[in-house]
Amino acid sequence: MQIYDHPTFRMACQQFDLVADHLQIPEFERARIKFPKRSMTVALPIHRDDGTTQVFPGYRVQHHLTLGPTKGGLRYHPDVTLGEVAALAMWMSWKCALTGLPYGGAKGGIACDPGKLSRDELERLTRRYTQEMIPFIGPQVDVMAPDLGTDEQVMAWMMDTYSVHAGYTVPSIVTGKPVIIGGSLGRREATGRGVAYLVNRATDTIGLDISKTTAAVQGFGNVGSVAALSLARYGSKVIAVTDAFGGVHNSNGLNLWELEKYVAKNKTVAGFPDAEPLTNEQLLVLPCDILVPAAMERQITEANAGKIQCRILAEAANGPTTPEADVILDQRPEIFVLPDVLCNAGGVIVSYFEWVQDLQSFFWSETEVVDKLFRILETAYTQILTVSRKQKLTMRLAALSLGIKRVQEAKRVRGLFP
Ligand code: NAD
Fold first, then answer.
1. Catalytic machinery residues
2. Dihedral angle computed from the Cα positions of residues 243, 249, 253 and 259, in that order, rounded to the nearest 10 degrees
3. How far apart are CA 159 and CA 376, in angstroms?
4. CA distance 418 to 414
5. Per residue in 76-131, pLDDT tens?
6. Judging by DSSP bridges, how do beta strands 276-277 and 246-249 pair with one another?
7. Which of 42, 220, 258, 267 is the most buried (most CB within 10 A)?
8. Which of 8, 116, 148 to mutate to test the pocket of ligand 1 (most atoms within 8 A of CB)?
9. Whose CA is nearest to atom 16 of ligand 1?
10. What residue spans define the domains of the chain?
11. Separation of CA 343 and ligand 1 centre (Å)
């Protein structure tokens, strides 16, 4: 499908083809499982604050509708394209299936730089996007959530726009919204918290004492900052953090609570006192026990995979490692990979809890949320580790094969209409 052509989409397809070969999925079944069911491209005109009008391209891809509504984040970033969004939607499908959630995958995005838009402009853009998507979304159709460049406030504007259109309040149209309007306790922290939980399990698996480990984190947004703080709570020493504007390193450990305050004020980790400057390229090859890419796709490539010096690669971002890098990592058994579809699944798991709570108008305590989150992650981790060991597969192929197989089985049992 030419319309999706993009390096990240090719990467998702390459991974799918490897797993389809392993699972011996017949050729005639593959395209039905692989390609997105629906995709929308919209032109979003908004009034800029200076009185001019600007049009932004917006996208939404719904990968499959076999197991329930589609579910996935909304990304605001200048490089967003239909192909990137389609790849992210595909990964969401495997992630939801491998954790047993009743969803297909989806993803959306607007090609814009949210840092260069005022709050009013962001609100107008978000409302316009939601308005354009109304025929294609709904609590039983497609449910959005925050991703790179979007947050709770963006979700609140989406929920308000949809509700005004419906004529009544519809909290279940988005997840990751503020708690006061039907968000779930523990949703904002869910992805990073899940990352740290799984890293702790991985340290057990490979015989590392987490309280003696060091960690480096790329990206200090929602996922990276919570992952760093949660790792520190498990006793790991976070020695380096980078973001889109630079980075910092202190081999004695960074004071993360001070760093959070610094970022709230300065919008970047760069320049944080009591630390050396560090680039993203340097962070990825820094000697450390736990490396957490928590920013963008395709960061670990053929060029640096041989130079990475960690014991656990915890993929908090979606698609941070290219298939070419995977080939190199396969030759490096000293590195234990927690693949993205497992590692960052905490976000969609608690989004699912939020959706369930909204549909029932019955809300859970944070303890209940975290307990249920860890149970689902534990089951998925154990299943993937077992498949990986029994079938001699990498953790990535084991995770993807569990997810893809479930989607294949669901499609088979439902049959093909008409
Ligand atoms: P965010 O916008 O809150 O934070 C992104 C961080 O990455 C920021 O610190 C930003 O400065 C940094 N960054 C951006 N471009 C960079 C670059 N080129 N190099 C280094 N750093 C860069 O986004 P987020 O919600 O934390 O998402 C981060 C990643 O996690 C994405 O891949 C996203 O798809 C994935 N993810 C997010 C969630 C979620 O619940 N938010 C769930 C699952 C996966």
1. 107
2. -40
3. 27
4. 11
5. 999 999 999 999 999 999 999 999 999 999 999 999 999 999 999 999 999 999 99
6. antiparallel
7. 220
8. 148
9. 244
10. 2-175, 190-343
11. 14
Q: Whose CA is nearest to atom 31 of ligand 1?
A: 317
Q: Which of 3.40.50.720, 3.40.430.10, 3.50.50.60, 3.30.870.10 would CATH assign to domain 190-343?
A: 3.40.50.720
Give domain 2-175's CATH architecture: 3-Layer(aba) Sandwich (3.40)
Pocket test for ligand 1, best of 79, 101, 147, 195 (most atoms within 8 A of CB): 147
Q: Give residues (CB < 6 A) around ligand 1.
A: 146-149, 191, 218-224, 242-244, 280, 294-296, 316-318, 344, 347
Residue type, 256: L
Measure 174 CA to ligand 1 centroid, in angstroms. Answer: 19
What predicted TM-score, i.e. pTM, was given to this entire model? 0.97
Residue 314 backbone dihedrals phi, psi, to 5 degrees: -105, 105
Ramachandran class of 392: left when φ > 0, alpha when ψ lies in -120 to 50, beta otherwise: left
Q: Please give the angle made by the CA atoms of 99, 223 and 402, to the nearest 5 degrees.
A: 20
Per this entry, what is the length of the chain? 418
Which tokens hold the place of 4?
């999706």
Tens of pLDDT, residues 136-193: 999 999 999 999 999 999 999 999 999 999 999 999 999 999 999 999 999 999 999 9
Q: How far apart (Å, rounded) are the C-alpha atoms in residues 200 and 210?
A: 7
